[in-house]
């Protein structure tokens, strides 16, 4: 206890406690403004090498300042979450989100591209669009809204980069996100794991008819390729594979390519549309408008449907079933069980990776470590590497798949 107290005291003396726009809390690894038991749990998993943190989260998790993540860091975070130790701030110079969300509260005046001085308030306001205005789904992943014209007002269109993410509501659901995206917001490091995030309505369910098997993805409201926000709980919703890949991704890639090619900014807003107290969004309203060229490069307003062809979805809970089958509420579907019952040799022949369901590691099919996995924990997997990482798996360090 004396050792712990001395470490904490040294931290208190070495860190400037005066809050500033770039001040952040040590131990707050999900960056929600407070240190909780959930933060301590994530730190502990990293210390056990069950998960990995990016540079920003490593800095937040290193409670004792020794340059590594250990069980002691997790213990210190847990004490803070239980109010047994005081919170400690540090200057978070690696993050953009904390500073920019503070900046969104400011009203400023600046010349826009027409040369006029206009008053701007960031972030752009939530669009006035409700679930009652969603057109009936007719087989396309998205549909144009408002004649394909975004709802941004004149004063909301600015050429200064920022990003904004609404707080979760009382049901744990994401609100709208808005940004003026420039090259400076785009990611500069490899995307990390988001498997620890469980958005509202989340279920881990597989169906053979779904590309990649998994019905649900953790969908970024603002794509990672645009602002580099990865495991931000305020930016991830439960979305079908169909909505994520067929609905949202084409617009995200178009915006990303445009910004990289021109260096211009794009006003971007992503709004999940919920009906009543549903935990699963009916879809996402996406808006984009290129600033410097006044919409000549990017100009769209679409609704992406949170549906999956061939699957029936209960939006109030996130439960699902193949059309004509009973509702699936368990962690895996009947299709997965049928796959498990097929012969091991056929599975291994078709698999891309071998999973250890106990350690949450994935291996190459010829990895020696994979041969040691108990049959009850072994699963043969066919699909993409990133999908596994998104589901919380980490690559084997020996075979490096």
Describe it for me?
By secondary structure, the chain is α+β, with helices and mostly antiparallel strands. It has three domains: 2-91, Type 1 dockerin domain (Orthogonal Bundle); 100-312, Extracellular Endonuclease, Chain A, CATH 3.40.570.10; 342-401, 3-Layer(aba) Sandwich (DNA Methylphosphotriester Repair Domain). It has ten helices and 18 strands. The strands form six sheets. Strands 5-12-11-10-7-6 form a six-stranded antiparallel beta sheet. Strand 15 and strand 16 form a beta hairpin. Helix 2 runs antiparallel to helix 4 (71-81). The longest helix has 22 residues, at 241-262. Mean pLDDT is 81; it is low at 7-21, 94-121 and 328-343.
Helical content stands at 10-25%
The profile of the biggest β sheet is: 6 strands, antiparallel
Q: Given this structure, which CATH class of the largest domain is correct?
A: Alpha Beta
Give the CA-based shape: globular
Secondary-structure-derived class? alpha+beta
Which strands sit side by side, in order, in the main sheet? 5-12-11-10-7-6
Q: What is the chain-wise order of helices and strands?
A: HEHHHEHEEEEEEHEHEEEEEHHEEEHE
Q: If you average the pLDDT, what whole number results? A: 81
> Radius of gyration, Cα only, in angstroms?
23 Å
How many alpha or pi helices? 10
Q: What is the name of the CATH architecture of the largest domain?
A: 3-Layer(aba) Sandwich
Number of domains: 3
Give the strand content: 15-25%
